[in-house]
Amino acid sequence: MARLSMNEMTTYRWSFEEDVVNYRAAGIPAIGVWRQKLADFGEEKGIELLADSGMAVSNLLWAGGFTGSDGHTFRESMDDAAEAIRLAGQLKADCLIVYSGARAGHTHNHARRLITDALRELAPIADQHGVTLAVEPMHTGVACEWTFLTGLDDTLGLLDAVGSPRVQLALDTYHLGDDERLLHRIPQVVNRIAIVHLGDRREPPQHEQNRVRLGEGKLPLNELVSALASAGYDKFYDVELMGEDIEATDYHALLEHSQQAYRQLVGV
Predict the structure, then answer these.
(1) Most distant CA pair in the chain: distance in Å?
(2) What number is the average pLDDT over the span 76-95?
(3) Mean pLDDT, rounded, of the chain
(4) Looking at residues 132-155, what average pLDDT do you find?
(5) DSSP secondary structure code for residue 190 in this structure
(6) What is the pLDDT of residue 69?
(7) E strand residue ranges, the chain
(8) Fold designation for 3-266
(9) pTM, rounded to two decimals
């Protein structure tokens, strides 16, 4: 059965140590690690703390930007990604989240060649460290600074072009959950999903990700999780929430609510 994870983006104000201690105290079995928080705490200390906690690492956020949209060269982004893969391996993370980077003035074909070449080069490194690269598409309303991949088809086409079992899909319900075709396609794509990020929203995103607590938005989370379960999905559901509504929430109450929502979604 799929397992619950809490993403460190959800508890943005807490430090890495606070996240680990509070998630564990709440009985949450896994954590989605944010590289920035871990770096601030110290990687070696963080790896040791996680080992002592007994929590699994569902995913590591993030690597990418291969199009140069963040000001780094292709080779700088590749070196950073290789370092992130090494770290993910040390954390025994199920996967490393990958964002392509924005088009950044490139033609779509050239931007696609850049991310394809990057993933082809990184896949053997990921295999060496036992890490899956999870490429995440985003909703068009918030994708512009992160990725030019905004739908399931273009992302699956990229995975086909790379042709490695170490390169899979990160499915975020916040971004793709209102695609009516997704429910029908889950049986065909479930084996290509490395992780599911659980997010909810009331309105289509515009410029910023204003997520709401699970079940308080308009996305068909029950139907999506049911379809995933029926198709045999048994990896992690990583709760990833952010935005004005989330920042105004008491984090301890948010952890409890997320656990309750997860149990209702998966039927336990």
Answers:
(1) 49
(2) 98
(3) 96
(4) 96
(5) G
(6) 85
(7) 3-7, 30-34, 56-64, 95-99, 132-135, 167-172, 193-198, 236-239
(8) TIM Barrel (3.20.20)
(9) 0.97
